[in-house]
Amino acid sequence: MRTGKTTRPASPSRPFRAADHLQSEAEVAAYIEAMLEDGDARAVPVALRTVAEAVGGMGALARKTRSRRSSRRLACASLCGHEAVVAQKAE
């Protein structure tokens, strides 16, 4: 008769990382669109960080997009709502 108990312990779980599942540019675009449709401004920096992780970090993202560090900072600051940084760069 079986008691329903398992004979071996369950394998340890790992936290979900969306970056591990973004394999193509189409998946990245769909992920960003979904985050923007959410309507929560706090989701945008999270989405950008996740995409950066998916492509190998900010350095890899910069090489892929051929952007400069100052441009990335300004874009991230404006998306994150840091008006002081954006105003300072505009001067």
Commentary on this structure:
This protein is 58% helix and 0% strand. The chain has helices at residues 25-37, 43-54, 58-65, 69-80, 83-90. It has one domain. Helix 1 (25-37) packs antiparallel against helix 2. The protein is elongated and about 65 Å long.
Keywords:
single chain; 91 residues; mainly alpha; 58% helix; disordered C terminus
Task: Give a brief description.
Helices cover 58% and strands 0% of the residues.
Task: List strands and helices in order, with pairings.
Layout: H1 25-37, H2 43-54, H3 58-65, H4 69-80, H5 83-90
Helix pairs in contact: 1-2, 4-5
Structural class: mainly alpha
The domain count comes to 1
Based on DSSP secondary structure assignment, what is the total number of beta strands?
0
Q: Compute the CA-based radius of gyration.
A: 20 Å
Q: What oligomeric state is this?
A: single chain
Spatial separation of the terminal alpha carbons: 79 Å
Uncertain stretches of 5 or more adjacent residues: 83-91
The overall average pLDDT, rounded, is 75
**What's the SSE pattern?**
HHHHH
The number of distinct helices, counting runs of at least 4 residues, comes to 5
- Classify the beta-strand content into a percent band: under 5%
Profile the largest sheet.
Answer: none
Shape: elongated
> In percent, how helical is the residue content?
55-70%
